[in-house]
Design brief:
TIM Barrel; about 40% helix; two-stranded antiparallel sheet; about 300 residues; 10 helices; eight-stranded parallel beta barrel; alpha/beta
């Protein structure tokens, strides 16, 4: 069983998620995470068409004693069409993503990732967003990763999604080591609880990602996006009520959002994205602060 640190660094933002980040800032962000004690780093080919993997690999070069995670399911193939990526990353569209959960696709994807990362292996390989390719992911992608696990090319395998029903099938039908669940067990969305209960019963650790629901819970004054879209007024109002409850206990909304998933026995770690050293240090300061037990009962009532 892979040992997972309590907090992880999500590297989508240094792949130019939403807006460009320079190379120096990306490296400084990873270094700030390291200096803050982070020893779990998660990336994917999808993030910036490989830019996240290249930057993360360069920043971690020469370091030891950490867990590195990447993903399979999207092959990057030259596009030749020019322009800018149209899937949320501010990068040139020199490549396009091609869904491929076949055995050959998984092997090629991981080989390409290792080249970008500059590593001979990764600790954790996750099947990434197989929503529309579920049977192939179960029948081909998982066995391919299990084979690589047996060979020592990866230490652990799993699935990473922003829904809970499909990962539940992986937990029940395969021998995955880890599940990454994004945005479905948060202060505002606890729909993923059935998956967490099954994982707890089976001893399958969960990485909780998207704990800010892509932005709404990231500041004590809720605003911005919810699940990568403008937040509806009703959800902003709910988050504002939660922020007031937190404030009465001397806690900020993002602090509570980080701490909440870790209260479930299945959740081994929270993965937090950041695009600057300042964001990393702010998150680290929050996760070190204790959260009073009385807060959770009041939040539940709210």
């Amino acid at each position: 069983m892979i040992e997972l640190p309590r907090f992880g660094f999500g590297a989508a933002p240094i792949g130019n998620l939403y807006e460009a980040v320079g190379d120096e800032q990306a490296r400084a962000t990873v270094e700030a995470a390291w200096d803050s004690g982070v020893r779990l780093f998660d990336t994917a080919p999808h993030y910036g068409l490989g830019l996240s993997e290249r930057r993360l690999g360069a920043a971690l070069a020469g370091r030891t004693g950490y867990v590195l995670s990447t993903k399979v399911g999207r092959l990057l193939v030259p596009s030749g069409r020019g322009g800018v990526d149209d899937e949320g990353f501010d990068v040139p569209a020199a490549f396009e993503r091609r869904w491929d959960f076949s055995r050959d696709g998984v092997l090629r994807s991981l080989d390409d990732s290792l080249s970008r990362l500059g590593r001979p292996y990764v600790d954790l390989a996750l099947i990434h967003d197989p929503d529309d390719h579920l049977e192939q992911a179960l029948d081909e992608a998982y066995p391919a990763l299990a084979e690589l696990r047996a060979q020592g090319v990866v230490k652990a395998v799993g699935v990473g999604m922003n829904q809970w029903r499909a990962p539940l099938r992986f937990v029940r039908e395969t021998d995955v080591d880890v599940v990454m669940l994004a945005g479905r067990y948060t202060l505002l969305d606890r729909s993923g609880l059935p998956l967490l209960e099954e994982c707890a019963a089976r001893g399958t650790p969960v990485l909780a990602a998207g704990v800010f629901n892509s932005g709404l819970l990231a500041t004590h004054t809720p605003s911005g996006a919810y699940d990568y879209r403008p937040a509806p007024a009703g959800l902003v109002a709910r988050a504002t009520r939660l922020a007031r409850v937190c404030e009465a206990h001397g806690v900020t909304l993002p602090q509570a959002a980080m701490a909440f998933p870790l209260r479930h026995p299945a959740v081994a770690a929270v993965v937090l994205g950041a695009r600057s050293p300042e964001e990393v240090r702010a998150n680290a300061a929050l996760w070190r602060r204790p959260v009073p037990d009385a807060l959770w009962a009041d939040l539940q009532r709210a």
